[in-house]
Amino acid sequence: MAYNEFAYFYDELNGAADYDALYLYVKSQLEKNGIQDGIVVDLGCGTGELTLMLTQAGYDMIGVDQSEEMLAVLREKADELEISERLLLLRQDILNLDLYGTIRAAISTFDTYNHIGPRENFEKAIEKAAFFMEKDGVFLFDLNTPYKHREVLADNVFDLEGPDATCRWENHYDEAEQTVDIRIGIHYLDTDERFEEHFKEYTYPLEYVEEVLKRYGFRMETVCDGETFAPLTEESQRYIITAIKEYTQMEKR
Fold first, then answer.
1. Whole-number mean pLDDT of the chain?
2. End-to-end CA distance of the chain
């Protein structure tokens, strides 16, 4: 899922996201586990608000996304902040992640891993992150919960408005397949151009996620509500997971 035309509309529609709270939580989790500098990769970085914040905090950031348009927006922002030389951007599918060396941490936010499926692909993406992770490294990522897929996205339609465009977000939840089929229709008001994006989100129960992490050398350390950063409730719409790399793949052999 590349979010091609959606890239230039993404920040307008995601304006309600509390990036400051997310940044403070991510940074606190990194520091809690002894990571105050070094190489951190943002998997599915999108237009890069969090990537830029962590770059400004002194981390050597790598932003990875398969959308050229998303990366172009991020590059423009980095240029405006005059931090482009401290930020490496890679256009890659995280299923085929290929970094230049090891990393101290990986982060992935706003449901990137829900877009990876079916399960064999989700597991491959975890394996790729594990391959480049140093021992005691931190893997911090979020997922939309089964509750959100079943009760919030469900078969609902959301109409969103920005200053330059409107967006219709249509969902179809498939209980049997444990997926949400999503269509995003974008209408640019000044040109009357219309575009459509179509993708799926996959539902992954927390017990399954923990099992996959363990298989690739991670210990699930902390799970909390990914919107409030408080303890989970039955109606939490997003998990945010902190996992620690207990051993490298070489040590496993």
1. 91
2. 34
Residue 11's pLDDT band, with cuts at 50, 70 and 90, is low
Options 3.30.1950.10, 3.40.50.300, 2.70.70.10, 2.20.25.110; CATH for 148-201 is: 2.20.25.110
Structure tokens at 240: 């945010």
Cα separation, 213 vs 202, in Å, equals: 17
Token pair 């608000």: residue: 49
What share of the chain in percent tops pLDDT 70?
Answer: 91
Angle at 54 between CA 52 and CA 55, to 5 degrees: 60
Strand-pair partners of 201: 180
**Partners of residue 101 on adjacent β-strands:** none
Q: Are 116 and 143 in contact (CB under 8 A)?
A: no
Residues 6+ positions from 226 with CB-CB distance below 8 Å: 142, 143, 236, 237, 238, 239, 240
Q: Where are the beta strands (DSSP E) in 73-230?
A: 87-91, 103-108, 133-144, 157-161, 165-174, 179-188, 194-202, 218-225
**CA dist 189 → 165, 192, 194 (Å):** 5, 5, 9
The domain 7-147+205-252 belongs to what CATH superfamily?
Answer: Vaccinia Virus protein VP39 (3.40.50.150)
Question: Residues 20, 16, 54, CA angle at the centre, nearest 5°?
Answer: 25
pLDDT at 13: 53
The token pair at 17 is 């996201």
pTM above 0.85, yes or no: yes
The two three-digit tokens of residue 69, written as one number: 């348009």
> 170 has which bridge partners?
157, 183
